[in-house]
Amino acid sequence: MTTPPPPEIGRLQSKFLDKTFSAHPSAWDSLWRESYTPWDRGGPSLALQDLLLEQHELFFPQSSSNANDNNNKKKKTALVPGCGRGYDVLLLAAFGYDVTGLDCSATGIQEARENQQKVSGEEAYAPKFDGVSKGSVKWLEGNFFRDDFLGETATSPGGKFDLIYDYTFLVALPADQRPKWAKRMSELLQPGTGRLVCLEWPLHKPASTGGPPWGTSAEAYAAHLNHPGEEIAYDESGAVVQPLPSSSSSAASALKQLVRLKPKRTHKAGYDEEGNVIDFISVWALQ
C-alpha cells in the first residue's frame, strides 16, 4: 500500500511521490486531464520577448533590424520542450522561427492546438519585425531524451535547433535527471550560432521542499551546462558542492554562458511579495 503523502505536500508534488521517472509522463497527462495545471501562465513570456528584442545581436548577428526576413531560403528553428499550452512556441513563431512545441502529454498537446486557434488573432503573437513573416508551428507528443520526434519536425542542418527555450522544464525534472538534461541540450543545439535560453525559476524555493517544481540556482545551471552528462553533487540544502568535476570528457560539448540578466518584466510567479522581479534569464551556446 502506498503511504499517504504528508499534509504539507501539495497536490502537484504528491502526484509524483514514489513514482519512477519513467512513470512521470503519465502523471503529467493525468494532471492535464484533471484540468490541474498550476504551471500554466496564461500567456507568453515577456522576459523572453524583451530578451529577443534587446539582445538582438545574440540571436540574429547578421541583421541589424530584421530576423528571418522573407528573402531567406530557410528560417531559423526553435524547440520548446515541456511546451504546455504553447504560449512561448507561438511567441517564437512571431519572431520568425519555425518552432516545435514538444510535450510528453498527449492531452497537453491537444490543449496547445486548441489554444493556438483561440489566440491566433491576439496582438501578443503578431509578427515582431517588419517584413518578417511568422514561422511555422508544429505540436508533438514525445520524449525530449529520445530522437524519435526529430524526424517529424524541421530542424537546422544536422538535426539541430537554432534556439531552445527552457522555462519550467528543467525544474520539473528530478535532480538525478539534470545531467541528462544538460547533455541533451548540448546534443540538440546548433554549434556556433545556436542559443539555449533559460528563464531561471524558482530561484527562491528551497530544494528541501521537493518538487516539481524543484528549486534551482544560477550555480546549478552553470554546473550542469558546463559539464553536460556528468554527475554534479549537491549538499542537503540543494547547493552545488565544490569542486566541480575536473573531467575533460565534456569539454567539446560544454555550454558557455553568453549573458545573464534580471528581466524588467516576467510572469507573475517571478515576482516577490514586494513586486520585485526575482527571475533571471540566461543565454548559452556551445563552447
From TrEMBL:
Designated name of the protein: S-adenosyl-L-methionine-dependent methyltransferase
CDD domains per record: AdoMet_MTases
Keywords from the UniProt entry: Methyltransferase, Phosphoprotein, S-adenosyl-L-methionine, Transferase
Keyword Transferase: yes
GO function term, MF aspect, one: S-adenosylmethionine-dependent methyltransferase activity
Alphabetical list of SUPFAM superfamilies matching this protein: S-adenosyl-L-methionine-dependent methyltransferases
Keyword DNA repair tagged: no
Gene Ontology biological process: methylation
